[in-house]
Every structure is written in structure tokens, then in C-alpha cells.
Amino acid sequence: MYLLDTPGVLSPQIKSVETGLKLALCGTILDHLVGVEVIADYLLYVLNQQQQFSYVERYGLSGPCDEVGSVLKSIAQHLGKVQKVQVLTGTGNVNVSVPNYNAAACEFIYTFRKGLLGKVMLDQGNDFLD
């Protein structure tokens, strides 16, 4: 088997959406082209599918979750990435905390890329033989 590493060279066509998400998760495709929340959603799917639940303890979740919005909200709160916003209501002003989902998604992806969420195989079975 030969492997040729060509940095910066990527096939002009990506065969499937899932292949594109795998490439984005690895950082081959720029995050903003796909969207960090979409990449984080795919990462959560892969981690749960492979029963890699280290993210639960790392971010102080009560248990595994398949809802990316809930996970990103918990990550944002865990990291203190929330913004205090004053909401005007008919009865007065109310202060609420709004989680920064974008920052939480970036942290989640970064942690995966650094290998801190465990060993994960993105290509399963015969996927890489096609």
C-alpha cells in the first residue's frame, strides 16, 4: 500500500454528504464552509454511535444525549460561554443568559481534533474499500 500526502489538494468532487462531513470533522474542509454546528452534530452522532461517551464527563452532562442543541448548551454553560441579555417584556425587563452555541461547537470540534474525546474511527467496515 502506498500513501501520498498532498497538503492543500482535495478532490474537486465529494462523493456523499457523509464523506464531506468526515472531511470537515478532520479539518480538511474549512469549518465555516460546512458550519461548526453541523460538524458538531455529526461528531455527536459518531461518538454516540461508537459508544464513546467521554464527552459526557468532560462537559458535565447527566448522560449521553443525541440532541446537539442540548449538548452545545451544556458545553457553553460549562465553559462560561454565555452572554447576559436584557429582554424587554410587557411587565418589565428580564435578564437572561444566552449560550454561545458557535463557541461551544468550536470547542467540541477542537477537543475531538486534539484526541481528547477518545479513539474514533470515521470509516467503518467496507466504507474505505469502495
Question: Could you outline the blueprint of secondary structure elements for this entry?
Answer:
Blueprint: H1 17-26, H2 31-34, H3 36-49, H4 54-58, H5 68-79, E1 82-89, E2 92-99, H6 101-113
Antiparallel strand pairs: 1-2
Helix pairs in contact: 1-3, 3-6, 5-6
Q: Top keywords for this entry?
A:
two-stranded antiparallel sheet; 6 helices; G domain-containing protein; GTP-binding; Conserved Hypothetical Protein Ylqf, Chain: A, domain 2; about 45% helix; GTP-bd_ortho_bundle_sf; GTP binding; alpha+beta; nucleotide-binding; elongated; about 130 residues
Overview of this protein structure:
The chain is an alpha+beta fold and 130 residues long. The chain has one domain (17-114): Conserved Hypothetical Protein Ylqf, Chain: A, domain 2, CATH 1.10.1580. Helix content is 45%, strand content 12%. It has 6 helices and 2 strands; from the N terminus they run H-H-H-H-H-E-E-H. The chain has helices at 17-26, 31-34, 36-49, 54-58, 68-79, 101-113, and strands spanning 82-89, 92-99. A two-stranded antiparallel ribbon has the order 1-2. It is elongated, with a radius of gyration of 18 Å. The mean pLDDT is 89.
